[in-house]
Design a protein that fits this description.
This is Xanthine dehydrogenase family protein molybdopterin-binding subunit. With 977 residues, this protein is of the alpha+beta class. The chain is 26% helix and 23% strand. The chain is globular. The protein starts with 10 loop residues before the first strand and ends with a helix.
Length: 977
Amino acid sequence: MTLELTRRNFIKLGTFSGITVMFGRLPNVQAREVHSGPQTSEWLTPDGEVKYRWDAIRKVTGDKVFARDFRAKDLPGWPEKQAHGFFLKATDVEHAFEDIDLSMLGPDLQPDRVIRHEDMARDGVKVPELADLGFEFYGKNFLLPKGSTSPLYGHPVALLVYQDFARFEAAKRRLRFESKAVTYGKQTGLKPPPNYGAARYVRIQGDSPTSAPAFSPMQDAVIWGGFDGDTPTWPPADSQGMFIPHSVMLHHRGGGGVRDPEVIAHETYEPMKRGMAAAGTIEAEIEAARHNPDKLVIERQGFSQSIDPSAMEPDNGNAWYDPATRTLHVLIAAQSPYEVARVAAFMVKDNKRFPVEKIEVLSGTTVGYGSKDHSIFPFYTIAACFYGDGLPVRLANDRYEQFQLGMKRHSIEIDLTLVADRKTGKFEILKGFYNCNGGGRANFSFSVAQVAATSAQTIYYFPKSDLSSAAIATAAVEAGSMRGYGTIQAMSITELLVDEVAAELGMDAIELRRRNALRPGEPNTQGAVQLGDPRLVEMLDRAAQHPLWTNREQAKAKYDAANPGRRYGVGFAQVQKDYGTGADTSALLLEFDAEGKITMRHCVQEIGTGATSSQQVVVQRMLGKAPDVVIFGETDFPQLPLKSNFEPFTISQQQQDELSRDPFWVPAILPAMSASNSVYFIGFGTKQAAQFLFENTVWPAAKAIWSSGPAGGQLASGVMTAADLRVVPGGIGGGGMTPIPFADIARKAHEMGLVTGVAVHCFSRWQWARADFDIPGVGTLNLAVDALAVRYGDGAPEALKARMNTGGYDFIKRSAVQYPSAQRNNAGVTTYTPAACLVELNVNTFTGKVEIMSHHSLLDPGNVVVPALVSGQQQGGVAMGIGHALMEDLPLYGDGPGNGTWNFNRYTLPRAVDVAVWTQTAEYLAPLADSSPPKGLAEVVMIPVVAATGNAITHAIGSRFYQLPITPAKIKKALTI
């Protein structure tokens, strides 16, 4: 292994609570991938077509490595020797933890160090607690105190550290299924933490779908709830007293942020009372509809199970505390290294026993499907390293440990009521309650619960809706951010119910959907209008004309007759899923030298989606040339000396107005790699930077070249504006002009002293921030960025060059900024991608086994950046959805993964044979225009196949299923009734 990382490769991430945080990349291929220098362009054709992923060769040749592949000896400056640690965990949640018993290890396998809660408490090693994440986001204790009852299955009670690998591995194997290693005392019953939060979204339309609503969350308020036991309580509609909800979650994806409960009580109590009155009106109308023969009222209970992310790389980390320099060295596998570094600084800032003045974070490539987003595991690694007796301590889950300790997808119990008009089939009311099992550690549970409620409408317009959710603390394994994030659970049940409504009305299931699909300008259940044309009806029309749908009855009759014991079915479902978080940012630098070499430093982190490829393609399409040097996963932009309060979800309008007067302030600095946000939200910044150079540099340079020569050059006889400029084969052209190679454009731009580099920061809260900038040589521009810095070319006047004193750039202080209203936090979401799926299957009536024969997906991805990446996301997502529909399932409690006995011998994942890999097809709607943006779709493709599979099973055997997964045992039981 060739080591290329040096101290000079570290960059300053920032200073948090007086601790300097430095950020670097792993050596070998990681250093080349991120700090790449001049690189081959073979992956990209001259006209911008992608032949394969930018990192493909390194991946397939084994040259691309993960954080898990490194040990201390591989890391420059670290000790040669490596210590290893593993946890003993509680598998009893109703008795007090008493002690541990390691006698079964014998004298030869005893650990070098045994660390308990009391050791950490004595030394001030505590679980990080940050206001912007919420109360006990990462739980209360790293290790369970003696005499306490575990709040969840699998909670660590002790850490065992070994200074040699052989003894470590032998001891770990010896203790793997040893139930007597942890002893318990008195029976206490369950002791979960307080419930995580409750929220309610009520909307009643006005005179028409597009007129001002009588009540909506966006216009008025989200209703925050408290708890009576595990039952949510809501503000009385007519109470004169003060209702203070129990709300602890602050930061999340969509659904609206929760601030301090006392603030909520004073600021929103009156609108919450009006909301509860609106909820009362809706309940009265549901009751009236039950007695009205012209109305159809269907009430069902659904369940979506807990599943494991099954990421290729289990959680791991390696950390070393150097007391001589008071430096904490951390190697992590995380989707958002910046967030880990920030939280780590707050975790160690007040520690007197292990004082830390500097943190050096190393980050490597990882894959997690959300499971490495805000995981506690990196902080367990940091806690462990203080007990390495001078050696780095490595924690790395094996598969048993990952099932026991890793985050899961939330299970959700659902009560759903839908009211429709029998004559027209039009939906009138949707009422739902989403009971989200958050397990014994808060994490993003309340956020997921909110997103379940706000996504439940799927593709439909409802004049009236009352959608509430609660995140309940239980003894189940922690659940958190995972692909789907509440939407797969909620929308699957809605889509199953819509098929039943169609059957009750005697109507074609796609036609019923068509009558109720959202049209452009119609709001969602929070009162927000989504970006652009939903195109839902267009997609429904395509599905209705597909042979699988039009021929389904004839095909069923033929197949059933020819295959005794098997029954054929075709099902359909269509959803639309949000992408983004509601506090999306992007930061990058894009520049070129006089020879035309383009350099891009970008905040985007590669987590398997191909973002590092797509961002370069965006530049190529806009400037006619891909970057020559790229640095991804960048966290330090000295050209943009920004600051933030880290609470973009919870800030009040007054706070935002005051803070935004400071031109260095932004609501959030860097993005989390989650929520399918890379292609649109993070890529938005890439587009703004490239567009700025295209309009303000490429155009004047090209115009100067075309205007040179006798008689004013080739441009003099015509009329051409910047709008006529195009990227063409060979460089920059348009307007009938001779194409100019980018190198010539760059040379001219530097000669003229034009802007030759730009650094931008963008922010979106379901609407992009805009600001005015007075740029020397350019003028005053209103841009969709909230921070801007520029670099001038070699020929610029000395006065301009003197301004480049901020990281070598001229930081342009904005003269005015328009941030999206803080009220848009209540919008839930406004950016969606629609997806539909047709599934063809057969059911074996003897075994109950389902065979997927084929499936056809329809997607509206907008303007696709890299088609092959879209195809890969589509195929992988469908496979994940089939697993959720038919097989993947984790028991929640005593017999679940928290008992430490689960591995892939017990947990069934879909294989190629299960997902019709050779007969799958897909079609993509062409973009409405060449200016249509790309859409995030990494999560949506797995959702419609779940309900489509369930609806196909119903078509096959006549039974309906609302409890997922639909297993052979459930099918056999249904067939015997």
